[in-house]
Amino acid sequence: MPDLELERLYRAKGYTYVCGVDEAGRGPLAGPVCAAAVVFPDEVDIEGINDSKKLSEKKREALYDVIKEKALAWGIAFASVEEIEEYNILEATYMAMNRAVEQLGNKVDFALVDGNRVPKGIKVDCETVVKGDGKSLSIAAASILAKVTRDRLLLEYDEKYPQYGFAKHKGYGTKEHTEAIKAFGPCEIHRLSFLKNLL
What we know:
The chain has helices at 5-12, 57-70, 81-87, 89-102, 137-160, 166-169, 175-184; strands at residues 18-24, 33-39, 73-79, 110-114, 125-129. By secondary structure, the chain is an alpha/beta fold. The chain has one domain (5-194): 2-Layer Sandwich (Nucleotidyltransferase, domain 5), CATH 3.30.420.10. A five-stranded mixed sheet has the order 3-2-1-4-5, sandwiched between helices. α2 (57-70) packs across α5 and α3 packs across α4.
């Protein structure tokens, strides 16, 4: 289970505010990519935080408000479908991560970033953590905020484009989704560069 050991390690090295950063939505065929950044106080007790992929939707939703309430600071940001298409998904993910970190303002001086790539252009010192959402409490919390925020947006898109089933698959390339794209063609939130093999 994730804990605050890494955050404490970097605070012991002289940093004051250590945030965890993660994203949701790199793989889907539709919708923006979302990133979040979370700074926890040195002692925080929230039952059940884990990698968002290991939690049920109900559990993620329950933790969402608790994380926001108990965090010293948090930020959530998107990179749009247009940015994904113009720059590519990796660059767009960096944009979303940097925007989330920038929302923390002076409440952050170090970032623990899930994965193995430092976001290009990040304005604070940082360290990458492979499978960080299973190790760092603040990264795990960021993964939950990003996932819940993006899922809620896809529910809104589902009302606008009910023929694609976004409420069910959240834009990922399920059989149902790919068949809907073939039947109806893509809509404005589809990532056309991700659909080359379908169209």
